[in-house]
Amino acid sequence: MKENKNTVEVAPKTSFRKKDFQDSVLLIIYADEDGNELTTPQIVSGRLGEKIHYRIKSLENFDLINFKGFTKFYVAHYAILTLTFQKKIAGAIWIFCRDMDTTELILPPKLSKGYLGDAYQLYSPSVPEYSLMNVKGTIRGIRSSESSSLTFFYRRRVWLTNEQSTLYFKMKSSVPVYSSPEGRQLKITLSPQTIWKTFSVITTTDNTKWYCIGGPLWIAFDSVRMSVYSKDFTEGQHLDDSVKLASLINGTVDYIADESVFLYDRPFGKIAGKLKHGTKVQLGHTVTSDEITWYRLTSGFWLPSQYISFE
């Protein structure tokens, strides 16, 4: 058979693959506990059956606490993942209300709590018989992670003035001692012929002058019971005049059960500490000034003899 030279060669059939396409969408919603959206929703797309790749947004001052609709793979053409966030708790603000003259708390401390990044404003409580005088701390601002404090200082409305005092009083007769001006009378009396330094004076609305003789110890000035004795001393004078004891003397603080007596940096000087009733002490020096005998403890502080019992 003769070969047909006009035969046409047919090219093999070409196979076309369907172009890849995304057929699944995941919508990620960022919301707070009340369902309010915190930021623009996030859209992630892919193909059914594939693993989902995405990064959760970081929201400042918020923590992720719950989620709904979580999945690792695209399992439907459209899905929703809801992420619930809670605001971070800020550092607490302690609120104190103090008597500016005695530094005592006049109301129980309170805590102001809130969320990190929130604005705040605090107000002074109303305290009967007191007037607000000063504030220490920040009353408004933005809450941070650090704890802080705010102190409101008040003064009694019946107190006209509060000033420093450097007067010394000599007792003509026994004088009662109070816990505060017009306060509770203590089981303490100042003996006749003793001399006491005062540190502050408060004038009340009835024109009575109350003098602080150290810590929570107050006396009302009475010209019949006491006289002004103004004299200042220096530490050097007392050390020069003092007598060093031949040997250390043992003693015991003799004051009021469960109470503490004040120590001084020098006779008639500033309060430098305190010791509880019944505390054992050792005495190394003594000096008598204005009819008051003082002893210098081995700690370096001074204590009047009437507060010491000797072994």
Would you give an account of this structure?
The protein is mostly beta strands. It is elongated and about 110 Å long. The protein contains one helix and 26 strands. The protein folds into four domains: 24-87, Roll (Ubiquitin-like (UB roll)); 93-156, Ubiquitin-like (UB roll), CATH 3.10.20.320; 159-228, SH3 type barrels; 235-310, SH3 type barrels. The strands form eight sheets. Strands 25-24-23-20-26 form a five-stranded antiparallel sheet, with helices on one face. Pfam families: MucBP (PF06458).
Main β-sheet, in a few words?
Answer: 5 strands, antiparallel
How is the largest sheet built, in terms of strand order? 25-24-23-20-26
Q: How much helix, percentage-wise, in residues?
A: under 10%
What would you call the structural class?
A: mainly beta
Shape: elongated
Kindly report the CATH topology of the largest domain. Answer: SH3 type barrels
Radius of gyration: 41 Å
Domain count: the total is 4
Strand content: over 45%
The number of helical elements comes to: 1
First-residue to last-residue Cα separation: 150 Å
Mean of all residue-level pLDDT scores:
85
Unreliable runs, pLDDT <50, ≥5 residues? 7-11, 14-19, 233-239
Secondary-structure element pattern, one letter each: EEEEEEEEEEEEEEEEEEEHEEEEEEE
Overall strand count: 26
